[in-house]
UniProtKB/TrEMBL annotation:
Location of the protein in the cell: Cell membrane
Gene designation: efpA_2
Main location class: membrane
Domain Major facilitator superfamily (MFS) profile: 2-457
Keyword terms of this UniProt record: Cell membrane, Membrane, Transmembrane, Transmembrane helix, Transport
Cellular component GO terms, alphabetical: plasma membrane
Transmembrane segments: 38-56, 68-87, 93-115, 127-149, 155-177, 189-209, 215-237, 258-281, 293-311, 323-344, 356-376, 388-410, 430-453
GO MF annotation list: transmembrane transporter activity
Membrane topology of the entry: Multi-pass membrane protein
Full protein name: MFS-type transporter EfpA
Entry-linked InterPro entries: EmrB-like, MFS, MFS_dom, MFS_trans_sf
Length: 477
């Protein structure tokens, strides 16, 4: 029951991050956003969410993860109410910023709680499979939900529906989620370090999401990016010298923790860009509406659910997470390579569905394996920090991938339009370039997985280990 409650909380956060995309045209018409200012409905959430994940993950270790989870639910639910009631641009953007704060608090500690609640290797593998399904498939489910709610009711209800869900989740969490005591603020209350890392991540995410407006070589991007890197360097120096560091750097000594987060950042960068640009291809080139696009992504969600819930735990237990991850990444690279060949006059079943299924297979196996590897060497005291790090790599990877791929796709499309290509052909050409680069990013992640990640022996249950020990002792006698 505790796992169900935690996953419902995560699903609410994931759905909200994608359901808004489908509703953006309705929000723009209703509140009078310009095309450039409309991006802040998304960016305000991303900046707060991505900037605070690492900090609140560590705070969960210090003050108690359930406290941070519940506080995040309260903030997220109240902010959702404000978003649903918004009648002006400023009110909606500010409410989205607050919603990002609540989303970060809620999601950053969930994986850490799951790891500590399920000490048995097999149960933990199953629980991580369920969590991975929610985290990876929730986005495509949000596309369908957003289209249905926006078309049949109103965009306001994509936010208001979070209110009863948030209240029910918080009430159940108080009853069924165990209250794990934290280390205490004396165990890592580094206020200056917290300021540095939060500033670095927020400024970094802001710089990334504004690249589409200013370009990669602009003074705005290079200047703010340099400041973000300087703040990050200052944070690393601070953590080396602080008596009670906010983020103990020992966690990065693990090849699996560092490598798994690097692989996840690259994989999510490719996937997020594909989801966004794939949606545009279905809409602008194939002419699908919001509900049709949601249905088009449904096979992807079903494939992720089947693999992450039905097979990932068995494969991780039988072969180990690294051995399961490598073919999963190969499947994702193949899917993106196929997407890079979609024609202007393509059909969904012949040209899109095969890639969707390959992506679902790859993501359904890759996410549980990566999360298992990223949490494999984390101590119980650092599990909240490791959980926050996993979510941070996801969000930064998503923002980076979306910005890079969308910018390059738009530039390629403009070039083809100038050369005299039709609108559909130019759009498709831009998407081809983006999908090819996305495949390249995941391929780099595959190389890291093969060369950096350490193979973890397939986990055994205590009873199995005791039986093998008894057999060995008997043979020795």
């Amino acid at each position: 029951m505790a796992l169900v409650v935690l996953c419902v909380g995560m699903l609410m956060i994931i759905l909200d991050s994608t359901v808004v995309n489908v509703a953006l045209p309705a929000i723009q018409d209703d509140l009078g956003f310009s095309q450039s200012s409309l991006a802040w409905v998304i960016n305000a959430y991303l900046i707060a969410f991505g900037g605070l994940l690492l900090l609140v993950g560590r705070l969960g270790d210090l003050v108690g993860r359930r406290r941070i989870f519940l506080a995040g639910l309260v903030v997220f639910t109240l902010a959702s109410l404000l978003c649903g009631a918004a009648q002006s641009q400023v009110m909606l953007v500010v409410a989205r910023l607050i919603q990002g704060v609540g989303g970060a608090m809620t999601s950053a500690v969930i994986l850490g709680m799951i790891v500590t609640m399920f000490p048995s290797a097999r149960d933990r593998a199953k629980a991580i499979g369920v969590f991975s399904f929610v985290a990876s498939a929730g986005g495509s489910i949000g596309l369908l939900a957003g289209g249905v709610i926006t078309d049949l009711v109103s965009w306001h209800w994509i936010f208001l529906i979070n209110v009863p869900i948030g209240i029910a989740t918080a009430a159940l969490a108080l009853r069924v989620v165990p209250d794990q005591r934290g280390l205490g603020l004396a165990g890592g209350a580094d206020a200056f370090g917290a300021t540095l890392i939060t500033g670095a991540l927020m400024l970094g995410v802001y710089t990334i999401v504004k690249v589409t407006d200013y370009g990669w070589a602009s003074l705005h991007t290079l200047g703010l990016g340099g400041v973000a890197l300087a703040l990050l360097a200052g944070f690393v120096v601070r953590q080396q010298r602080a008596a009670h560091p906010l983020v103990p750097l020992r966690i990065f000594r693990s090849r699996n923790v560092s490598g798994a987060n690097a692989v996840q950042l690259l994989m999510v960068a490719g996937l997020f860009g594909m989801f966004f640009l794939g949606t545009l291809y279905l809409q602008r080139v194939l002419g699908m509406d919001a509900i049709e696009i949601g249905l088009a992504f449904l096979p992807l969600s079903l494939a992720i659910g089947t693999l992450s819930l039905g097979f990932s735990e068995r494969l991780n237990m039988r072969f180990g997470p690294r051995a399961t991850l490598v073919p999963a990444l190969v499947s994702i690279v193949a899917a993106l390579a196929l997407f890079a060949r979609v024609p202007v006059d393509g059909s969904y079943f012949a040209d899109v569905l095969p890639s969707m299924l390959l992506l679902g297979i790859g993501a359904g196996l890759a996410f549980p394996s990566l999360m298992t590897l990223a949490m494999s060497d984390a101590t119980p005291e650092d599990s909240g920090l490791a959980s926050g790090l996993v979510n941070t790599s996801q969000q930064v990877g998503g923002a980076l991938g979306l910005s890079v791929l969308a910018t390059l796709s738009a530039t390629r499309t403009e070039s083809l339009l100038s050369a005299g290509d039709s609108t559909s052909a130019a759009l498709t050409g831009g998407y081809h370039l983006a999908f090819a680069i996305a495949a390249g990013l995941v391929a780099v992640g595959l190389v890291i997985a093969v060369t950096v990640l350490r193979a973890v022996a397939p986990a055994r249950e205590p009873a199995e280990a005791e039986a093998e020990t008894a057999i060995a002792m008997s043979e020795a006698a």
